Amino acid sequence: MESGADARNDRRTAEEKAIDDWLPVTSSRNAKWWYSAFHNVTAMVGAGVLSLPYALSQLGWYPFSFNPSLLWALESQYLSYLG
């Protein structure tokens, strides 16, 4: 008696089998949701960190450090208004 995975593999075409053999990631992945969440966060943080030197070079020291402080102040005022 064949297992479920063997029966499923038998229904694939030769082209699908060749592609699965070539791909480094197969259909037998066992990833959890937090792996995806971690990779999404690191991608966004990485893009933000890489953009900081460019922003600093374009703005200069004073506007670069004043901007986040201003945004923080505005956000805290907005959040206290909501609360």
TrEMBL record:
InterPro entries named among the record's database cross-references: AA_transpt_TM
One GO term describing the cellular component: membrane
Name of a matching Pfam family: Aa_trans
The keyword Transmembrane helix belongs to this UniProt entry's keyword annotation: yes
Keyword field contains Manganese: no
Signal peptide: none
Subcellular location, principal: membrane
Alphabetic keyword roster: Amino-acid transport, Membrane, Transmembrane, Transmembrane helix, Transport
Domain Amino acid transporter transmembrane: 30-67
Domain of life: Eukaryota
Spans traversing the lipid bilayer: 33-56
Subcellular location per the Swiss-Prot or TrEMBL entry: Membrane
One Gene Ontology term from the biological process aspect of the record: amino acid transport
Protein's name in the database: Amino acid transporter transmembrane domain-containing protein
Provenance organism: Lactuca virosa
